[in-house]
Structures are given as structure tokens and as C-alpha cells.
Specification:
It contains 7 helices and 5 strands. The protein is of the alpha/beta class. The chain folds into 2 domains: about 80 residues, no CATH class; about 120 residues, Trna Endonuclease, Chain: A, domain 1. The chain has a 5-stranded mixed β-sheet, with helices on both faces. The longest helix has about 30 residues. The radius of gyration is 44 Å and the shape is elongated. It comes from Streptomyces griseoloalbus. It holds the Pfam family Mrr_cat. Keywords: Endonuclease, Hydrolase, Membrane, Nuclease, Transmembrane, Transmembrane helix.
């Protein structure tokens, strides 16, 4: 008598690890993440430049989510479309209203100070002449010209005062230890009236004048503007030096 053989169920073999498929999966996942990141970055840039369109996009997304939720509740397709259309219409209206609204006015920039005194010590001789010419123009002089240079015969700036007098100015950009001497005044005094036909002759310096120079200037009618008088003229504490017609005293 033969005994029936019991069939044994074959054992399931474990699924083999597929390196190629795994690598492809992670590659696709990385690509999807990169594309998603670029998309989010682009949308963020658009939202920053066009906040109105960001509002529109958010409204559209909200309408889509609402439609999806309503669909899960077995609402009709017509009702979902109507709700989405209403949300989109409202978002479009708000966006158009935002575009039509005037942009807020920018606050005016603060005006620069009008009495700012330049640092004459850092100016070159040519820049110092330009600064003196600017002071003359500020105080109402006309036909202001910088004529200093080779062969100027002592005249650096010429102008017409508000009263119509011809001004001839010599500029001396000296240091504190280098005063304007009498020889400088004598050379200028020999040309300012006879050659340049000045009604008022001035010598302006960033330093000071020696006593003999001031005596010569007083005899010849030359107005001396020393450092302190120049600063007072620049910041408006003293009138223009040609207004007095005499030697400007240090303040």
C-alpha cells in the first residue's frame, strides 16, 4: 500500500535588491526636488515683484482646494465651477483695484545744509579760487570768473558786486605758519587798480597777514580777508568783505 505524498509548499524567495532601480528612483526623486525648488524660488520672486499676482494665484489655489473638498462631499460639478468662478472673479477685481490705486508718495529727501563751510585747508590753490568764486556768486555777484593762472598779474577771481562795482580778488591758500607779507601786497597793489581797473581789490587767505602787509593794504585801499574773516564770511556770520570797503578785521 502506497502512502500519498504530502506536497510541500515551496518557500518564497526573498526579493533581490535591484541597485539600478534604486539609483533611478533616487535620481528621479532628486530631479523632482530640484524642479520643485526652482519652481518655488521663481514663484517667490514673482510674488516679491508682483504681490497682486501672488494674491490672484493664492485665490486660484484656494478655489481649487475648495472645489476638491466639495467634490469629496459629492457636490455637483456645476456648483464647484460656480464657486471657483466666483472666487476667481473676486480675486481679479481686487487685483485690478490694487493696480488702479495710486502709489504712495515718497518722502522728499532732506535738503542739504546751505551754510556748510568747506574745509579750505584740504583744497588745492585752484580749488580755493573756485571756492572764493562760489562765495561771490552766492552773495549776488554777477559775471564771476576764475582767471588765475600763468600771466594773471595777481588777479585770481573777477566779478561785479551787486552794486555794480568791479571786484578783483587775489587768493592765497597758505598754511598757518606762512603769512601773507608786504611784498605779496605790493605786487598785487601794482596791478589791481592800474591793470585790472578794480573798484574794490581784495586779498583772501587761509592764513593771516603780517603787520607791514596790513599797513600797506590800508594805505592802498586793498581789503584784507584773513582766515577768521573768511570763515565768518563763509558761514554767514559776517557780510561780504567788499561791502565795507575797508580792511576786514579778524572776528
Amino acid at each position: 500500500m502506497t502512502m500519498p505524498q504530502r506536497r510541500t509548499r515551496p518557500m518564497h524567495r526573498g526579493r533581490r535588491f535591484d541597485l539600478r532601480a534604486t539609483a533611478m528612483f533616487f535620481g528621479l526623486l532628486a530631479t523632482a526636488l530640484i524642479v520643485t525648488g526652482f519652481a518655488v524660488r521663481a514663484l517667490a520672486g514673482v510674488a516679491q515683484r508682483r504681490p497682486v499676482w501672488a494674491v490672484v494665484l493664492l485665490c486660484v489655489v484656494a478655489a481649487a482646494l475648495l472645489a476638491h473638498g466639495r467634490r469629496r462631499r459629492r457636490l455637483s460639478a456645476a456648483r464647484i465651477a460656480r464657486r471657483a468662478g466666483e472666487a476667481l472673479e473676486q480675486a481679479t477685481t481686487e487685483a485690478l483695484d490694487a493696480l488702479d490705486s495710486p502709489a504712495p508718495a515718497l518722502a522728499p529727501a532732506p535738503a542739504p545744509p546751505t551754510n556748510r563751510v568747506p574745509d579750505y585747508d584740504v583744497l588745492s590753490p585752484e580749488e580755493f579760487e573756485e571756492a572764493i568764486a562760489a562765495l561771490c556768486a552766492r552773495d549776488g555777484c554777477a559775471q564771476v570768473r576764475v582767471v588765475g593762472g600763468a600771466g594773471d598779474l595777481g588777479a585770481d577771481v573777477v566779478a561785479l558786486s551787486p552794486e555794480g562795482r568791479r571786484l578783483v580778488i587775489q587768493c592765497k591758500r597758505y598754511g598757518d605758519d606762512n603769512k601773507v607779507g608786504s611784498q605779496d601786497l605790493q605786487r598785487f597793489g601794482g596791478t589791481c587798480f592800474a591793470v585790472h581797473e578794480a573798484d574794490v581789490a581784495l586779498v583772501v587767505t587761509t592764513s593771516d597777514f603780517t603787520a607791514p602787509a596790513e599797513e600797506y593794504a590800508e594805505r592802498c585801499g586793498i581789503v584784507c580777508v584773513a582766515r577768521d574773516a573768511l570763515l565768518a564770511w563763509s558761514d554767514g556770520r559776517a557780510p561780504a568783505p567788499w561791502a565795507a570797503g575797508t580792511v576786514a578785521q579778524d572776528l
